[in-house]
Specification:
Pfam families: HSP70. With about 675 residues, the chain is α/β, with parallel strands linked by helices. It is built from 24 helices and 19 strands. The protein has three domains: about 180 residues, Nucleotidyltransferase, domain 5; about 180 residues, 2-Layer Sandwich (Nucleotidyltransferase, domain 5), CATH 3.30.420.40; about 280 residues, no CATH class.
């Protein structure tokens, strides 16, 4: 995940400058133009969405155009969103926004070519952020999200089988960050606090002028005292005492002074949180978490007041200012074409992989039985011996395990997709994996037992080339099942364990073709391959070697299958595949056919162990939110995240890790964070 920067800052100033010529500008360009005409600012464009147009220092302009200027600036910096069809766009909006504001915002989105953007409520995005960080929120349990932005909003979110739902939201504009700034400024200057100064509420009062005509008049509040108060407030989130310049005299301002100054404001926030819980009609036991987000969430006085008022100690996510933005990216993308089909048909290759591996395993075992020759009398003190393609038996046993695991995974995915609890569904998938591995071992043993009875020979060689060859693969699958059971959350938000452990169908097809050709070259079975052998001999120079061109072509196929399993990047896979295929073909002899089969079994074992270890690294190496308040789960692939807000400090970099390639998603928030 990458946080987009604007003018070397991790957020975009939410103000829009309207020039005397009606030209709109944002960011550094707006700052330059404002130096000549400072009354052209629209400091909170989103607050004006209830008006069709605004009057800015004598210039009348559509509100949708002002908001579109912000969105256009963000879109130009996010390449994944700019490329048509390459990603999804999500906009974070306050939970209480009704149809009027949403419709107005969509009009602005349509003007910048993002009419299909998805609007996601801020508390729902925060809930997805918690889930991505490892917080276990069972179905029916609730999270109280306390958002300390410019205003304050308390929302009760509950977990549903399909995701999250907002039960109730209480907005209290007069007890948010702006009101705190005003109260602190009053305490520093000994001037009675006016919570409406600089909060945007003064603009709301001015907007009543001409409201009947759908217009608003924008004023410019004085910000010097508020800026001083805001800096003091932010500093007190990390230090017990700060020095503040009051006029020409420096003064000390501590946490105790802050608690006294904002006591009434914080009490109003606690009261709004209580109202939200009451409006949601839930019990205190159902509220599993109280989470503080927003720029003002770090203040210790807030946590103390909420603990005293609600009886639950709140937690704060690591990046409180941008929690909703990150959560919008981390929420599952359920509308992308083909995603649901890919998940439901996953397993270790889907239905096609199951059929191909199963038919191939049975076919290779049949080739071994038909092509083998028994020497020695059946009724004798000295046991007989079998001359056959023992490597083919090993290939058949390994593919049997691949087929049973794929089948159990695929059927389990279809059977358990109706289970509402994600973690329970994932653990049932772990049981399916383990069951498939055990069934594969039984099938491999069945091959050996059948061979013992059919040829009437000692069991040792048959079981060694069937059960012993497949046993490491069985153990590796059981390890993977244990990882899924222990850490049931998939490696990526919105990801899927069946997709993560999907065995490459191309590798199955290549090794099946290769093992069949190697077996035919040594045993002459099946006869239907005679035409292929004659065609290859006519077009190549052959010799009297035991291994002919048909067998060497089979060896090349097996080498290519190994490259598919070992290398993930397409260009590197192609570069490695040709020399590896050639090396396998050249080194193939009757004495090495069995070793090549055992080597393939080792590669399959490595593939399962590597996927299991990679999944474990994705989940274990990140701290869980239960212990730290929040831990962002790394998204697979790369997602660009943009944040709009004149204040706050989202992080500049968020790491990304290897894994599944997720769709590119970019998100922006519509409210100012303090």
């Amino acid at each position: 995940m990458t946080v987009v920067r604007f003018d070397d800052l991790p957020w975009l100033d939410s103000r829009v400058y309207v020039g005397g010529d009606g030209i709109l500008s944002v960011g550094a360009v707006a700052q330059q133009r404002a130096s000549h005409r400072p009354r052209g600012w629209v400091s909170d464009p989103m607050a004006q969405l209830t008006h069709d147009a605004v009057d800015v220092d004598g210039v009348r302009i559509d509100t949708a155009d002002i908001v579109a200027a912000l969105l256009s600036a963000v879109r130009s910096r996010v390449p994944n969103a700019a490329a048509a069809g390459r990603g999804a766009v999500r906009i974070v909006v306050p939970a209480g926004w009704g149809p009027r504001r949403r419709t107005a915002l969509r009009a602005a989105l349509d003007r910048v070519g993002m009419a299909d953007a998805e609007l996601i409520a801020a508390p729902l995005a925060v809930a997805w952020h918690l889930t991505a960080g490892g917080v276990d929120i069972p179905v029916g349990r609730c999270v109280l999200v306390c958002d300390f932005g410019a205003g304050f909003a308390a929302s009760v979110v509950t977990r549903t089988p399909d995701g999250f739902e907002t039960l109730a939201t209480i907005h209290a504009q007069s007890v948010g960050g702006a009101a705190m700034d005003a109260a602190i400024a009053a305490a520093l200057t000994a001037v009675p606090a006016d919570p409406h100064v600089g909060s945007g509420a003064d603009m709301a009062a001015d907007s009543e002028v001409g409201a009947g005509s759908g217009s608003a008049v924008i004023g410019l509040p004085t910000a010097e005292a508020l800026d001083r108060a805001r800096l003091a407030k932010e500093a007190l989130s990390v230090a017990p005492v700060v020095q503040v310049q009051v006029g020409t005299v420096p003064a000390l301002f501590g946490v105790a002074d802050l608690r006294e100054a904002v006591g009434a404001v914080v009490a109003g926030a606690v009261d709004a949180a209580r109202q939200a819980v009451a409006a949601a009609d839930v019990t205190a036991e159902q509220v599993q978490w109280v989470v503080c987000v927003g720029g003002g969430a770090r203040l210790p006085v807030i946590a103390d007041a909420l603990t005293a008022g609600l009886g639950v100690r709140p937690v704060m996510v690591t990046h409180a200012e941008a929690a909703a933005v990150f959560g919008a990216v981390q929420a599952p993308v359920a509308t992308l074409p083909g995603e649901s089909a890919a998940v439901s048909a996953a397993g270790t290759g889907g239905a096609a992989g199951v059929v191909l591996a199963a038919v191939g395993s049975i076919g290779l075992f049949g080739q071994f039985v038909v092509g083998a020759e028994r020497y020695g009398p059946r009724q004798s003190i000295v046991p007989g011996m079998v001359l056959g393609h023992w490597g083919g038996l090993a290939f058949a046993a390994v593919l049997a395990v691949v087929a049973t695991v794929a089948g159990a995974s695929w059927l389990g995915t279809l059977r358990f997709e109706v289970v509402a609890d994600d973690r329970l569904r994932h653990r049932l998938y772990a049981v399916a994996l383990a069951g498939g591995a055990v069934l594969g071992a039984v099938v491999a043993a069945g091959y050996g037992v059948f061979g013992v009875g059919y040829f009437d020979v000692p069991a040792g060689p048959m079981l060694r080339w069937s059960v012993l060859a497949a046993l490491p693969v069985v153990v590796a699958v059981l390890v993977a099942a244990g990882v899924v059971w222990w850490r049931p959350d998939p490696p990526s938000p919105g990801g899927s364990w069946p997709v993560w452990f999907r065995f490459p169908v191309a590798a199955v097809a290549l090794v099946l073709a290769g093992a069949t050709l190697i077996g035919y070259d040594g045993t002459g079975s099946p006869l239907m391959l005679d035409e292929l052998r004659l065609w290859l001999e006519r077009h190549t120079s052959t010799s009297n070697e035991i291994i002919g061109v048909t067998g060497r072509l089979g060896g090349a196929f097996v080498g290519a299958a190994v490259a598919v399993l070992v290398i993930r990047r397409v260009w590197l896979r192609v570069a490695v595949m040709l020399p590896l295929a050639g090396l396998t073909a050249v080194s193939l002899t009757w004495r090495t056919t069995g070793l090549i089969a055992v080597g393939f079994a080792a590669v399959v074992t490595w593939w399962w162990l590597w996927r299991a270890v990679s999944a474990l690294a994705h989940t274990v190496l990140r701290p869980t939110a239960a212990s730290t308040g929040s831990a962002l789960r790394g998204l697979s692939g790369a997602a660009d995240v943009a944040s709009i807000g004149s204040r706050g400090a989202p992080p500049s970099i968020l790491g990304s890790g290897p894994g599944l390639q997720a769709p590119s998603v970019w998100s922006t928030t519509t409210d100012e964070r303090r």
